[in-house]
Design a protein that fits this description.
- By secondary structure, the chain is α/β, with parallel strands linked by helices.
- It folds into three domains: 1-65, no CATH class; 66-122 and 265-287, no CATH class; 129-245, Nucleotidyltransferase, domain 5, CATH 3.30.420.
- 43% of the residues lie in helices and 13% in strands.
- It is globular and about 60 Å long.
Length: 287
């Protein structure tokens, strides 16, 4: 279960014998003096949590002691806004939460793929007219190629990070996009020959219907070229990504945040238009 059940906070130290009635993997050391109590003298789960939360939250030398909402908040802000890990450390510090920037890094890497899976359940379908293009992303000092597509309304279709810009990379992206979305009726490309050949190969192999219209138009592809800015502006404060896997996870999270901003999810099932963003995220991840 993601970050534990909603009523099972992860602010506790390792102790498998403390408070078995809470069904927690571990319990704060502050609770140990009372673990032998019984009847009226024994604390309830909510009382234990209330007493332990504040002192545990401020101890950065301990691991696994942060509340679920703090983890989700840090990851959400990192993916949504132009913030570095150290910016988030400073922001959390002003709220009395002491943590290291490497802790937030691990949270982003560990939980972002799971967040994408949870949100995918509420995704709206995209249109059938796709604008496809690739842009450059620097990873560990080398240029990688980020394939992306949007529909004619600007809604994100999918993305794929590749070490090469060739026919196979374009085919891999199109196959990935079609698995997660409807089969397109039109695909608009730039003049790069490898992308055109990839579409032709997929048609010959029967993976793409012959009826799909392929066209090349710089004017129509301005939409996807402008949309690249959303991703590249967010990547700029990160000062470079350190590995291919890290880049793929972080870009996937940024794409998720941008799709939420574009209204590509059924928010009505997550609290409606009156719900705040924290409430919407809480509902999406609890499903």
């Amino acid at each position: 279960m993601l970050l534990g059940e909603a009523n099972k906070l992860s602010v506790f130290h390792n102790c498998s014998d403390c408070h078995p009635e809470l069904q927690l993997k571990s319990v704060c050391r502050n609770c140990r003096p009372l673990q032998d109590g019984s009847g009226a003298n024994r604390e309830t789960g909510s009382e234990i949590i209330d007493r332990c939360l504040d002192p545990c939250r401020s101890k950065s030398s301990l691991r696994g002691h942060f509340d679920q909402e703090i983890v989700v908040l840090c990851v959400r802000w990192y993916l949504s806004f132009k913030l570095s890990y150290r910016d988030l450390v400073a922001m959390m510090g002003e709220r009395g939460i002491d943590l290291a920037h490497t802790t937030i890094l691990r949270w982003v890497q560990h939980y972002t793929p799971e967040f994408e899976k949870r949100w995918k359940r509420y995704a709206r379908p995209v249109g059938g007219s796709w604008r496809m293009d690739e842009t450059y992303v620097r990873v560990k000092g080398e240029w990688m190629y980020l394939y992306r597509a949007v529909d004619k309304a600007g809604k994100t279709v999918d993305f794929s990070l590749s070490r090469k810009r060739d026919v196979n990379a374009a085919k891999a992206f199109l196959c990935k996009a079609m698995k997660g979305q409807r089969v397109p009726t039109k695909i608009t490309l730039d003049a790069y020959a490898a992308s055109h050949r990839a579409v032709a190969d997929l048609k010959d192999a029967g993976e793409l219907p012959k009826r799909v219209v392929l066209r090349s138009s710089k004017y129509l592809n301005n939409l996807i070229e402008q949309d690249h800015r959303r991703i590249k502006q967010r990547l700029r404060p990160m000062l470079g990504l350190k590995s291919f896997r890290t880049a793929r996870v972080v870009i996937g999270g940024i794409e998720l945040a941008e799709r939420i901003k574009k209204g590509q999810f059924k928010i009505g099932k997550l609290g409606g238009s009156t719900a705040t963003m924290p409430e919407i995220w809480r509902a999406a991840l609890a499903a």
